Amino acid sequence: MTGRVSTAASPSNSIWRRIHRSDAWYSFITSPTTVVAMMATVVIVLAAVFAPWLAPHTPFDADSVNLGDAFTPPVWAAEGMRTYILGTDGQGRDMLSALMFGSRTSLLVGLAVVLISATTGVALGLSCAYFGGLLDSFIMRAADVQLTFPSILIALLVDGLTRAALPREMHDAMALYVVIASLSLANWVQYARIVRGAAMVELRKDYVEAARVTGASARAIMFGHVLPNVVSPVLVIGTLGLALAMINEATLSYLGVGMPITQPSLGTLIRNGNDFLFSGEWWIAIFPGALLVVMVLAINLLGDWARRVLNPRLR
Amino acid sequence: MLAQVGKRVYQAALVMLVVAVIAFGSFRFLGDPVSNMVGPEVTPDEKAQIAAELGLADPLPVQFLRFLGNVLRGDLGRSYQLRQPVAELIVERAPATLELALAAAFLSMIVGLPLGIYTAVRSRSAVAKFAMAASLLGVSIPSFLLGILLIMLFSVDLGWLPSFGRGDVVQVGWWSTGLLTLGGLKALILPSVTLAAFQTTMMVRLVNAEMLEVLRTDYIRFARARGIRARTLYFRHAMRNTMIPVLTVTGLQVGHLIAFSVITETVFQWPGLGLLFIQAVNFADVPVIAAYLLFVALVFVSVNLAIDMLYLLVDPRLRVARR
Q1: Which DSSP symbol is given to A5?
Q2: Cβ–Cβ < 8 Å for A126, B234
Q3: pLDDT band at residue B314, thresholds of 50, 70 and 90?
């Protein structure tokens, strides 16, 4: 790193200037893969967020879908149609629009899972470090037990048991929440462990002692003083966790225990296309698959960059 | 040393107990066990009688102990969907999953280990750079998608390999094996490659990182200065110290192989435990889900226990009781 020493804030030190001079910006702009990954992420996220306005068709509205257009190949194939740039699936749904709505669901689930599991994990990890004792050993034993099993297996089991508890006709309506809950339950452990470890170190430092002396409450010390100092590993795990959550969600949906076809994620779209592989309609499964890989790869690369920037030991 | 072993065994037993409670709870409280066992034409009186026979009116601890006793005797209840004892189903399906998992573990070892060493030793070569980049891609491809791509290429386009099932199976006692016929081996290729892909990338990255670490140490530098041949240096001196973490991960992989075999088996319609489990989840077949939970936990706990024991044997430092 070029270790620039920032001079005292002069009036011309606008926020852009400061960003421009930061180490993070330097390591970002000098790494072409990170820049490409960032651009890919931004394009996909924008397309997903604005899908209801940008998508050329409304693929999951039964009235607007024309069954006669089913199995239209992409536009560059001989039988391709202009209106369906990436072709249609077996129900005549436009693939491009389906992809936009699908990545919307995938991103929504991924972000929700990261948010919930990170919040839970951070809160539990901080409490463990701060209070110690019985609470600490109880939560950490639970974490140990859970960590012996891979997260996708936990998610599958929670998902399976929740489905068994719900009446059959509610499965589709509740699918989004079941998927988010089971993936969050499978992922909180990492956050809790890393935050607990980092917070234990912080709690021994003088500033915490000083805060204690001033009579700050436990909550104020944990969230106001310790949390800001342990947040950077959480950001790194969160980024990589987003990629993992999206893969796991796609896997659940592919296995038929995730999102229903009325509210599909990329995994549901791949499952839907799987049946047509043998009859030559490859695009129905391959496009959502490719989009998923691009998204996950881009997010993983951004996560690697975040780790380089936020972990000074790797410099 | 004995105290350490005892502690590990106690922890393992605790985990199994927790899992048993979860399995019992889901079996008892998710859905109505009686109406799931009998047809819709049964009267409420008969239902009440069956419930009494099953002892559903007893206090919960009594029911739990009875459940534990049944499980220990190998009675895991009957599947709601297949109307067959669950224990029978598991015995029937286990060989398929175990053969798949073993084949995948073998593949990831014979590919991952040499490649990991190579990428560390020749870290600047084009092959090493390519392998490391490919391993990042390997982590980003969901395994079901890889399976689909392999099917597209080798089954649909080239027509070389079957895309589903186990091919020809030979019965050896109660164990049905696909390893003895050409058809069975051909059917094993795509699923085991799919299952092994993620493990292999993990193995390459891990061995690479460990090896780079070891190669930086003083004893390797001195060995090199002594003029020891490169091959002896890498394979005798460096690899030995790389193997300890690799051992752990290999053990943990057994669990991952089982978890991911659920996915692989669904993609390839491989008639193993994973497919059984997914069908059970779709059908809300609680006894099968609970039994699978117990089975997987048992495998995990015993593997982890075995690794811990192995550690105590391999690394003398761990035998000292820590205060």
Answers
A1: P
A2: no
A3: low
pLDDT band of residue A313 (cuts 50, 70, 90) is low
Residue-averaged pLDDT of chain B: 79
| Six-digit token string for A114 | 């990261």
Contacts of A300 by beta carbon, 8 Å cutoff, 6+ apart: A240, A243, B136, B139, B140
Residue B157 pLDDT > 80: no
Q: What is the pLDDT of residues A266-306, one digit of tens each?
A: 888 888 888 787 777 777 788 888 888 889 888 888 888 88
- Taking alpha carbons only, the member of B279, B292, B290 closest to residue B26 is B290
Q: What does the DSSP 8-state code read for residue B177?
A: E
Q: Which of residues 168-227 of B touch A (CB under 8 A)?
A: none
Asked if A177 and A159 touch (Cβ cutoff 8 Å), the reply is no
Taking the CA of residue A113 and the nearest CA in chain B, the distance in Å comes to: 18
DSSP letter string, A156-182:
HHHHHHHHHHS-GGGHHHHHHHHHHHH
Whole-angstrom Cα distance, residue B92 to residue B112?
A: 32
Taking CB atoms and an 8 Å cutoff, what residues of chain A touch B156?
277-278, 280
Residue with tokens 């053969």: B99
The candidate with the shortest Cα–Cα distance to A132, out of A229, A203, A234, is A203
Residue A105 carries which DSSP code?
H
The minimum CA-CA distance between B98 and chain A, rounded to whole Å, is: 17
Strands (E), B134-207: 170-172, 175-177
Question: pLDDT digits over A69-119, tens only?
Answer: 666 777 676 676 666 666 777 676 777 888 888 888 889 999 999 999 999
Rounded to whole angstroms, how far apart are CA atoms B185 and B177? 10
Q: Compute the distance between CA of residue B199 and CA of residue B108 in angstroms, rounded to an integer.
A: 6
Contact A179, A258 (CB under 8 A): yes
Residue pairs between chains A and B whose CB atoms are closer than 8 Å: 113
In the beta sheet, which residues pair with residue B294? none
Residue reference for tokens 């709690």: A203
Cα Rg for chain B, rounded, in angstroms? Answer: 24
Reported ipTM: the value is 0.76
Amino acid at B302: S
Residues 6+ apart with CB under 8 A from B58: B66
Which residues in chain A touch residue B148, judged by CB atoms under 8 angstroms apart?
Answer: 270, 274, 277, 285, 289
| Closest of A150, A155, A147, A128 to residue A139, by C-alpha | A128
The amino acid occupying position B229 is R
First to last CA, chain B: 13
Establish how many alpha carbons lie within 13 A of residue B11's alpha carbon, considering only the half-sphere containing its beta carbon.
18
* Partners of residue B32 in chain A, C-beta under 8 Å: none
- Chain A residues closer than 8 Å to B139 by CB: 300
Cβ atoms B176, B96 nearer than 8 A? yes
Alpha helices (H) in A204-311, listed in sequence order: 206-213, 218-219, 227-254, 266-274, 283-310
Question: Where is pLDDT greater, at A121 or A165?
Answer: A121
Please say whether the beta carbons of A97 and A55 come within 8 A: yes
